[in-house]
Amino acid sequence: MIGVNVDITRREEAxxxxxRAEEELQAMNIALRENEERLRLATANxxxxxxxxxxxxxxxHWPPLVKAMFGISPERPVSMADFFSGLHPEDxxxxxxxxxxxxxxxxxxxxxxxYRTVGKEDGRVRWVAAKGRGVFDDDxxxxxxxxxxxxxxxxxxxxxxxxxxxxxxxRRISEVLAExxxxxxxxxxxxxxxxxxxxxxRWLAINKAAADEFAKIFGVRPQAGQCMLDLLTHLPAxxxxxxAVWARALSGEEFTEIATFGHREQxxxxxxxxxxxxxxxxxxxxxxxxxxxVTERIREQERLARAxxxxxxxxxxxxxxxxxxxxxxxxxxxxxxxxxxxxxxQRRGVGGEREQRLITGAIQSADRAKTLVQRLLAFARRQPxxxxxxxxxxxxRGMGDLIASTSGPQVKVSVEIEQDLPAxxxxxxxxxxxxxxxxxNARDAMPDGGTLRITADAQDVDLGxxxxxxxxxxxxxxxxxxxxxxxxxxxxxxxxxxxxxxxxGKGTGLGLSMAHGLASQLGGSxxxxxxxxxxxxxxxxxxxxxxxxxxxxxxxxxxxxxxxLGTALLVDDEPxxxxxxxxxxxxxxxxxxxxxxxxxxxxxxxxxxxPQLLVTDHLMTGMNGTDLAxxxxxxMPGTQVLLVSGYAESExxxxxxxxxxxxxxxxxLAAKLASMSGSG
Length: 680
Description:
Elements: H1 9-46, E1 48-54, E2 59-61, H2 64-69, H3 80-85, H4 92-103, E3 111-118, E4 125-136, E5 142-151, H5 153-189, E6 193-198, E7 203-206, H6 208-218, H7 236-250, E8 255-261, E9 268-278, E10 284-293, H8 295-347, H9 353-379, E11 388-390, H10 392-398, H11 400-407, E12 411-417, E13 423-426, H12 428-444, E14 450-461, E15 472-481, H13 488-493, H14 511-521, E16 525-531, E17 535-545, E18 567-571, H15 575-588, E19 591-595, H16 598-606, E20 613-617, H17 625-635, E21 640-645, E22 659-661, H18 666-679
Parallel strand pairs: 12-14, 18-19, 18-20, 20-21, 21-22
Antiparallel strand pairs: 1-2, 1-5, 3-4, 4-5, 6-7, 6-10, 8-9, 9-10, 11-13, 13-17, 14-15, 15-17, 16-17
Helix pairs in contact: 8-9, 8-15, 9-14, 11-12, 12-14
């Protein structure tokens, strides 16, 4: 028999191996399907979409879930163009750069971006979080990019809300902190002294201003947490005052008061407002206070009170001056005929020796009355002044010997004049009289002897100066003694007329008031500095002038003798004064025509009268003498004019008009007329 024997053992083994492989493959397929189902279910439940880009064929694989993220219906095919066009315009550049980096063989970066999409069909904006990586072949070429996409719109909305809440919270916190910082800065930077104290007198808070002021007053600097009473053990009296006022506040009392704290130069006035401090439960836990330094306000009130007192005093002196000036003016009108009559009787030798002695005594009394009236007018600032630019230093030096002899051997007189002292416009005779009166007062204030120091210097005066003068340059004449001095009550009345501390019969009380009136009338002031036992310093302040100082005429004055000198027109509304003056003019050599008013004098002139001399009173009813003199000078330039007055009426008085002070004697009138003729 011929046959073939085949060994099928290996074939059976291969078949068995195949069957086992098929079974394993089937099992793997089942497992894969199960895994794919699990993955599908997981991704479906997790809202995770897979995407795959075939880079070789440029084919995009999107499941319905990813299409929904771009607002595309499930059945619609998509391409890479749909992907890029579906991106929000603001995110395209970012996404494109990330995708390119993932597909780049060199970078092979992780594709990890969040972007917005704009639905192609519904226009809705969604947020997508995508991740993926590139797949590269053996040659390094990117063949595909695959990854996942998740719709995070809800999360982004929550994040936006959370961010808004956080920003709102941060803003509110910042606002609260800013408000507290502002309050803290205000409290710390304010001029008010702010303190907060607990029931044990410990500072809970104290601002810088309060700490600085406490240190300035008490010498120790406080800090929060310290007990204020412990810091004041070295000042028992101040410690008790502080304890007492805070005890009221800590007991629950709320009040405002002004108190004084500190000692010596650190003492000040403070307005303090206390309030109760309570916790959130309303329980009293301490007190706080706001304090303001009102020292300047109190001092200003005191200065205002002093100024008001000075104003009342000034008004009183002004009223007294007006009364005094009016009385003195009337006395001058009364004295003029008396002096004139006595002078005429004396010159004519009327009566015997006894009668002439009586006339001489009467004339001496009239001269004293004349001096008294001049002082009254000086106080009232109504004396007629003949002012001219004067070297006051030379005037004072010239009076040195007279003042020394008047003061007596027990008084040492010292005269100190500043070099290059400017001139002042003064009435030299009146200033000499004022200085002599001050020197006599100084001598009387030193009954046991002492030092009289007279000085003169130039001073620049600013606003607020103690002399109450307008700003400018002034001469200061000081008459200082080392005598008994004056207390405040005496100093307040020192310039009142007839006020004197010398006793009855030892003075008129007009020397200082006359000096005060003269200084004021010259545009200056008089100040008094004095303390009991330390002496007195009287200062006369006079405005300086740039006018040149003219040398005084040395022409000898003589009385015109016999023979008619022409016609004199005499104008005065007081008949007695007019009669006395007419008699004097007649004795001098004039033919006199009288007029009781300026209007009457004008009628005489209009009627053809051409006088060689016009002598007129200044203050009269109707037109005054100054206006009359101006008219006569204008119409008859050759007529000599003399203005006579016992009253300083500065308004309307021409400074170039020759003037004479009432009362006057015949010799004084003759001398004045002679000087006018000599200067004319």
